[in-house]
Amino acid sequence: MVQQIIVITDGCSNVGVDPVTAAALAREENIIVNVIGVVDEGDIGLRGTREIEEMAAAGGGISKIVQSKQLARTVQMMTRKTVVNTIQQVVNEELEQIIGSSASLEDLHPDQRAKVVHVIENLEENISLRVVLLVDASASMKPKITAVEEAVHDLMLSLQAREGRSEVSLFHFPGSKNKNDFAEKDLDWSTEFAIMKRLFYKINMRGATPTGPALLKVIEYMSQKQSINDIKVLDKAAEADKEGAMLSDYIV
User: Fold this and answer.
1) CATH code for position 156
2) May I ask which residue range the UniProt record assigns to the signal sequence (predicted)?
3) Residue 103 CA to chain centroid, in angstroms?
4) Residue 55 CA, distance from chain mean position
């Protein structure tokens, strides 16, 4: 299973723990943190960009600074790239065990390489995926929220097209109901993507930017003990994942 957090923010966290530290903690939990920055111009934008890049680097993910009109395509690209990168990392580790520590796909015979690439492509389409969208709802993001909503909707459509199970959860920060709540959950793990669009109407854009504390809350949420239903889902996903353990059959 691939687990990732996609943070959509204009940067410049100003409450609580450093978001770079929080992203590093996520990586320790095998959760990848990707960050999309919709930043303003000037010194504030430069500071936000630096924070966004450092956060993604610490979380083992990727960052991208975009204009609002580019947001939808970027969210989809990041989700897909995270899945591909994770699978390739697993494949490379197995290749190292089979044919040596300096091995790569390019070292294989063309016929073997084609078979391994087929395994990668199959896993990419079938591996289970969990994504938490963590949306900055501070006052400075108010002019950009419509673009965020459209981006999330487009992501849902792309995930529906996958063969593997895709679950999505939505949080925004800071919380709307309680001033002391660093992040608020709008949607628990769900495959009912049609309801996602309606959730944005209740988000109250206000206040400061507690990115670090919000990340910590999401990490805790994602790291909770799996329910019996989760385990059943993982067992089913493992059938698709088995192909990744059969690389040795193609490399003799």
Assistant:
1) 3.40.50.410
2) none
3) 28
4) 13
Number of domains the chain contains: 1
Angle at 10 between CA 167 and CA 179, to 5 degrees: 75
Contacts of 20 (CB under 8 A, 6+ apart): 51, 54, 55, 58, 212
Q: Digits of tens for pLDDT over the chain (252 positions)?
A: 889 999 999 888 888 899 999 999 999 999 999 998 887 777 777 888 899 999 999 999 988 888 777 777 888 788 878 877 777 777 777 667 766 656 666 777 788 778 777 777 777 778 888 899 999 998 888 888 888 888 887 788 788 888 888 888 999 999 877 777 899 998 899 887 777 767 777 777 778 889 999 999 999 999 884 443 444 444 444 454 444 454 556 555
| Six-digit token string for 163 | 């063969």
Can you tell me the distance from the alpha carbon of 195 to that of 198, in angstroms, rounded to the nearest whole number?
6
What are the φ/ψ torsions at residue 135 (nearest 5 degrees)?
Answer: -105, 125
240 in a domain, yes or no?
no
> Is residue 10 one of the residues assigned to a domain?
yes
Which DSSP letter does residue 228 get? H
- The range of the structural domain enclosing residue 169 comes to 2-84+130-225
Beta bridge partners of 136: 173
103 falls within a domain: no
In whole angstroms, what is the distance from residue 73 CA to residue 43 CA?
A: 27
